[in-house]
Write a structure and sequence with these properties.
The chain is of the alpha+beta class and 203 residues long. 22% of the residues lie in helices and 28% in strands.
Length: 203
């Protein structure tokens, strides 16, 4: 998408020091994908994600999608807006809007025409070069605070996965999983992911 003409400041979230809401976000027309975390803009590269990122995302999404067929939960992949309200669900009060690589929502009342409003049951992020700090720190914090039940971080280069499960409002980390391990989701009953399948044939 192209940016609107200069002069309309709401369409130009270029400053790190501004504070923005979902109302602002809806007005932006940008070439690159942007996310809001606690009112701060995080811009992603205009170029498409790397091929390996997309291959892993496709494999994981397909496994979850097939598992959830004829079950109550739904799975979505980026680009898909997840709004994480704190004070209220009004657009002007929401200051965190993220686009997880993959998310699973079991409470369908959280789904609307714009995406998801409220914490998904499971979020999976696949790291890209330059995104590690955001995924490991900023998103970790907002996912924990917002009540995302389970958060997985997949590292394509190292072929590892860390999972975090929300227990009494705090994330409890797993051990480091790698090829040969099978991860059993704690939020999506019965779902297991074989990492041998995820990480094979990535060349």
């Amino acid at each position: 998408m192209k940016q609107k003409k200069a002069g309309n400041k709401v369409n130009e979230p270029f400053t790190e020091y501004g504070r923005y809401s979902y109302s602002d976000y809806l007005e932006w027309q940008m070439d690159e994908m942007v996310e809001l975390i606690k009112g701060k803009v995080f811009r992603q590269a205009a170029a498409a994600p790397r091929r390996i990122h997309q291959k892993i995302s496709g494999k994981v999404f397909a496994k979850i999608f097939n598992f959830l067929e004829e079950r109550h939960c739904e799975v979505y992949e980026a680009p898909f807006d997840v709004r994480l309200p704190v004070k209220s669900k009004r657009n002007e009060d929401i200051d965190t809007v993220v686009q997880p690589d993959i998310c699973v929502i079991c409470d369908k009342s959280k789904l609307d025409q714009l995406g998801c409003i409220g914490a998904p049951d499971l979020i999976i992020e696949i790291l890209s070069p330059g995104s590690n700090k955001k995924e490991l720190k900023n998103k970790y914090e907002v996912y924990e605070e917002s009540g995302v039940g389970e958060y997985w971080i997949i590292h394509p280069d190292e072929q590892t996965v860390m999972t975090y499960t929300l227990v009494e409002g705090k994330y409890v980390p797993s051990r480091l999983f790698t090829s040969g391990d099978v991860i059993a989701s704690k939020s999506i009953s019965g779902f297991q992911l074989d990492l041998e399948y995820v990480f094979k044939d990535l060349d």
